[in-house]
């Protein structure tokens, strides 16, 4: 419960939460008032002394009106609370994701997806029951106090039965919670397989063996194990519920058949006691039904809080409250003894030490074998990976943590595995003359246009055309540096030639500094500086020759 409240209280505010609690207590009191009045009237009817109908009519009317008012206020509050919880939690996670470190987020995608889709939903549903749970608990406590005033010995026996019920519940609670936790961990595995199916559907649709394999070897076992764990947990909760019922029914039967005479309890009090017990049973039933919901919510809340902590830690390395933006013009970027290690041990890949110098207007090509570290180096150069050692200097400023946000903003990038947004995201105004100019230059004028809202008419293009549009979008950002990772790999020979021999020189003339990873050895002469990446080491190759 503590972990659930840790998420709820910041959203309602402490005073808001106290207001809900007070209303919950009032609601419990109101229910008790009703049962108390009913038993009072019943007692009088049985004794043949009931006469004051008008007085009781007013009492019932007042109780019903109070009940309606409290339920309505509480229900509206619960609807607002659950919606706030649902959307605020999602917003918080998305905001943390956007602040998180690139590397850390890459390894948390599945976890984040499962949290936003599954945990937030579970918690929202549970928040709708939390007031019912609270009201039932308050009612239970009041009913117990009332029972004590009716007959102390009977109350003591009832308390004993209740303690036995709670003990049985606690005995199994640990196993039930563990089963629910295991089922929740399996949700991540399920999401992982499901993402593979959505991302790799082309490959899967080509071959029924792959479809069969992913379904039978991943989806089915995970579903079966999660089914087993959830079912075990819910049956455990159900057993507790049935045990509770059995204990109470036995108690009621014992009171009616034996205890009332053995303990010499008045008929009126026996009736009120049994009637209150039956009412109490309803409240206990509500608690029993809602317990699994709240236990699941506790597991979900734990996951969400852990994820939030992890994301906050991930982001703290580079995102600072007041990022320093670079306003001066790029003259050079000097990199000295730069290293990046994927892991601590010797077997993990690392790059460096790299010494590298970018002068304004440079056209730099980097080539090298697959897995030699080109992308890793470029990601470190871009500030996506925080260097493990060495320094990056922009003009005369050493790039420190507080500079990274501003430093990254210097680069327009088309990644190897780029994502093409369907609009000029983050750029409300840009040079529309350039847009038309680049459209012609990249031979897309008959293919794509842009609406008044800045949205591209389509992104349903061929792979090569999508890359061209991604590059146009990057160029419209008008950043001083352009970085491309194997951009020309998907272009036809005609356009590849045009790219290296016309477009790059043109962009250089416009003042851009260009860094490109490329395997197109026919065009290496188009670079001012050429580097080879080998086993994580950046080797200058004929830099002077091409300058
Ligand atoms: N997220 C990661 N975690 C750990 N190691 C990684 C990760 N990404 C890449 N590597 C390792 O880094 C090495 C270099 O990868 P990188 O993508 O930088 O190579 P590359 O030169 O760009 O290759 P390619 O030409 O195939 O794109 C790889 O051998 C891989 O083992």
Concise summary:
Helices cover 65% and strands 11% of the residues.
Structure characterization notes:
It is a multi-pass membrane protein. Residues 333-547 form the ABC transporter domain. The protein is built from 15 helices and ten strands. The chain has 547 residues and is an alpha/beta fold. It has two domains: 2-311, Up-down Bundle (ABC transporter transmembrane region fold); 332-546, 3-Layer(aba) Sandwich (Rossmann fold), CATH 3.40.50.300. It binds adenosine-5'-triphosphate. Residues 342, 349, 368, 370-376, 533 line the site of adenosine-5'-triphosphate.
Order of helices and strands: HHHHHHHHHEEEHEEHEHHEHEEEH
Write the CATH architecture name of the largest domain.
Up-down Bundle
What is the CATH class of the largest domain?
A: Mainly Alpha
Quaternary state reads single chain
Contiguous runs where pLDDT drops below 50 for at least 5 residues? none
Strand count, sense and barrel status of the largest sheet are:
6 strands, mixed
Keywords: ATP-binding, Membrane, Nucleotide-binding, Transmembrane, Transmembrane helix, Transport
Subcellular location: Cell membrane
Domain ABC transporter: 333-547
Membrane topology: Multi-pass membrane protein
Blueprint (SSEs and pairs):
Blueprint: H1 2-12, H2 14-47, H3 53-99, H4 102-106, H5 109-150, H6 152-199, H7 201-206, H8 208-262, H9 267-316, E1 332-341, E2 350-359, E3 363-368, H10 374-382, E4 389-394, E5 397-398, H11 404-408, E6 411-414, H12 432-441, H13 463-476, E7 481-485, H14 493-509, E8 513-517, E9 529-534, E10 537-540, H15 543-546
Parallel strand pairs: 3-8, 3-9, 6-7, 7-8
Antiparallel strand pairs: 1-2, 1-4, 4-5, 9-10
Helix pairs in contact: 1-2, 1-3, 1-9, 2-3, 2-5, 2-9, 3-5, 3-9, 5-6, 5-9, 6-8, 6-9, 8-9, 12-13
Adenosine-5'-triphosphate is lined by residues 342, 349, 368, 370-376, 533.
């Amino acid at each position: 419960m503590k972990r659930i409240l840790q998420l709820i209280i910041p959203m309602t505010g402490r005073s808001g939460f106290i207001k809900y609690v007070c209303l919950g207590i009032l609601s419990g009191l109101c229910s008790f008032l009703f049962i108390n009045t009913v038993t009072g009237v019943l007692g009088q009817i049985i004794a043949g002394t009931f006469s004051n109908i008008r007085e009781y009519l007013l009492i019932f009317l007042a109780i019903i009106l109070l009940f309606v008012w409290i339920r309505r206020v509480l229900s509206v509050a619960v609807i607002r609370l659950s919606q706030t919880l649902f959307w605020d939690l999602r917003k918080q996670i998305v905001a943390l994701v956007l602040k998180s470190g690139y590397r850390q987020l890459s390894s948390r995608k599945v976890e984040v997806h499962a949290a936003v889709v599954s945990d937030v939903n579970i918690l929202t549903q549970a928040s709708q029951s939390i007031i019912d749970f609270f009201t039932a608990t308050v009612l239970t406590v009041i009913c117990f106090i009332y029972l004590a005033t009716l007959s102390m010995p009977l109350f003591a026996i009832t308390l004993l039965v209740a303690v036995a019920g709670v003990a049985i519940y606690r005995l199994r609670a640990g196993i039930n919670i563990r089963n629910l936790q295991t089922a929740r961990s399996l949700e991540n595995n399920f999401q992982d397989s499901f993402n593979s199916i959505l991302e790799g559907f082309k490959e899967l649709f080509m071959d029924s063996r792959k479809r069969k394999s992913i379904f039978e070897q991943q989806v089915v076992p995970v579903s079966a194990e999660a089914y087993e764990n959830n079912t075990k947990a819910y049956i455990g909760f159900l057993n507790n519920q049935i045990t509770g019922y059995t204990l109470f029914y036995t108690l009621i039967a014992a009171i009616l058949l034996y205890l009332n005479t053995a303990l010499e309890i008045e008929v009126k009090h026996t009736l009120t006691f049994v009637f209150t017990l039956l009412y109490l049973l309803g409240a206990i039933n509500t608690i029993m039904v809602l317990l699994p919901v709240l236990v699941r919510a506790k597991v979900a809340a734990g996951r969400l809080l852990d994820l939030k902590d992890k994301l906050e830690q991930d982001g703290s390395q580079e995102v600072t409250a007041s990022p320093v933006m670079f306003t001066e013009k790029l003259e050079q970027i000097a990199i000295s003894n730069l290293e990046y290690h994927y892991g601590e041990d010797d077997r993990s890949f690392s790059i460096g030490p790299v010494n590298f110098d970018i002068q304004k207007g440079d056209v730099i090509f980097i080539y090298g074998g697959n897995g030699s570290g080109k992308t890793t180096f470029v990601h470190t150069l871009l500030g996506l990976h925080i260097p493990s050692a060495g320094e990056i200097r922009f003009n005369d400023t050493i790039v420190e943590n507080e500079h990274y946000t501003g430093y990254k903003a210097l680069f327009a990038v088309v990644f190897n595995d780029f994502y093409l947004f369907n609009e000029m995201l983050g750029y409300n105004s840009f040079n529309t003359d350039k847009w038309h100019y680049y459209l012609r230059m990249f031979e897309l004028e008959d293919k794509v246009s842009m609406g008044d809202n800045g949205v591209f008419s389509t992104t349903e293009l061929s792979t090569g055309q999508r890359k061209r549009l991604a590059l146009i979008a990057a160029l419209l950002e008008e950043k001083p540096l352009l970085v491309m990772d194997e951009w020309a790999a998907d272009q036809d020979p005609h356009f590849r030639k045009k790219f290296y021999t016309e477009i790059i020189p043109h962009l250089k003339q416009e003042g851009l500094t260009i860094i490109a990873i490329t395997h197109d050895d026919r065009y290496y002469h188009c670079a001012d500086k050429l580097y080879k990446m080998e086993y994580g080491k950046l080797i200058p190759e004929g830099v002077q020759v091409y300058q």
